[in-house]
Amino acid sequence: MEIQYTRYRLTCTHPFGISRSTHDWYDVLYVYVHQDGITGRGEAAPSERYGEFPDQIEARLRSGIELPRIDGPPEDYQAELELLSGGIHSLKAALDTALWDWWAQKQGRPLYELFHSRPDQAPCSSFTIAIGDFDLLAQKVAEAEPYRILKVKLGTNRDKEIITEIRKHTDKTLRVDANEGWDLDRAREMVPWLADRGVELIEQPLPTNRLEDTARLKALSPIPLIADENCLTGADIPSLADSFHGINIKLMKCGGLTEARTMIATARELGLLVMVGCMIESSVGISAMASLAPQIDFADLDGHVLIDNDPYEGMKLVEGKITLSNRPGLGVRLTLEGGGLR
Ligand SMILES: [Mg+2]
């Protein structure tokens, strides 16, 4: 099987700020696999939080990595993908996604069908209001009008002001992501305060090395605490069950759809809630994760609507509801020519 790739810069509609960083753009790498006249697509959107960078991925792809001829489902090729990706999870995610796209297209079926996902059971996605200019909050809430759930990034020294301001403009369901930005004292104060203001869940309140503190917080929290930075792959899940009510699965952390499906099963066995999330990604990565969205409790799949130059279209958010494409494979279509995009 042939592998090709191209690098592409996604530009953010608003600067994307979270507790630890702000970005105006992100570079991603599209990976294309080709065999038997069919091209499968995958996307690597590396995160510096996990020590992964576009240059590192590009160097690995440029070194001429090779796949054998593929004659079975992507589950059968995980050892090869692990080796090829050299431990870079976002690259493995791109390769795994491309193989699933190819495999489903080969059978002429949408990927969600192979995963036994029912499109009518797909939930609404949240829409993210990132950390940025306080004076733009009202405008951002107005721009989020088509979406029914807002996810607010906190972990600043103005967290209560941010929520109070947003609540002046909307009574929509809110979710909060602190991105490790609090300590236990601050979290003890914030969690009940946020619950009183209609916040549905809180992602990663404390740093990853504060699992015991997070367990104390869980004991008093009236709303679910969801592990994000603490939960990369399925191997992390058992140790999180005492500290969190659920986990947030992202392709770029876990290394692809194959591992994501295992993680859903592991979390369910442990009685944990399941959320699916994303980095700033285009419709390739987002449509891949969306194929599992009908199987989970909370979806945060808005990376492709936070950018203004998505070169593909696939899964759509229709009034916030995840609406899967019926086309074979991931169901994505290139809408912008050039730059080696396929
Ligand atoms: Mg998060």
Which features does this protein show?
three-stranded antiparallel β-sheet, Enolase-like, domain 1, single chain, alpha/beta, 31% helix, 11 helices, 2 domains, 342 residues, binds magnesium ion, eight-stranded parallel β-sheet, TIM Barrel
Q: How would you portray this structure in words?
A:
It is a single chain. By secondary structure, this protein is α/β, with parallel strands linked by helices. It has two domains: 2-109, Enolase-like, domain 1 (2-Layer Sandwich), CATH 3.30.390; 113-334, TIM Barrel. The chain has eleven helices and 15 strands. It has helices at 54-62, 78-85, 89-106, 111-114, 137-143, 159-169, 184-196, 211-220, 251-254, 257-269, 283-290, and strands at residues 2-18, 21-35, 38-44, 126-129, 149-153, 173-177, 199-203, 225-227, 246-249, 273-276, 298-299, 312-313, 316-318, 321-323, 333-334. Strands 4-5-6-7-8-9-10-11 form an eight-stranded parallel beta sheet. Helix 6 (159-169) links the parallel strand 5 (149-153) and strand 6. Helix 2 runs antiparallel to helix 3 (89-106) and helix 7 (184-196) runs parallel beside helix 8 (211-220). It is globular and about 60 Å long. Residues 177, 179, 203-204, 228, 248 line the site of magnesium ion.
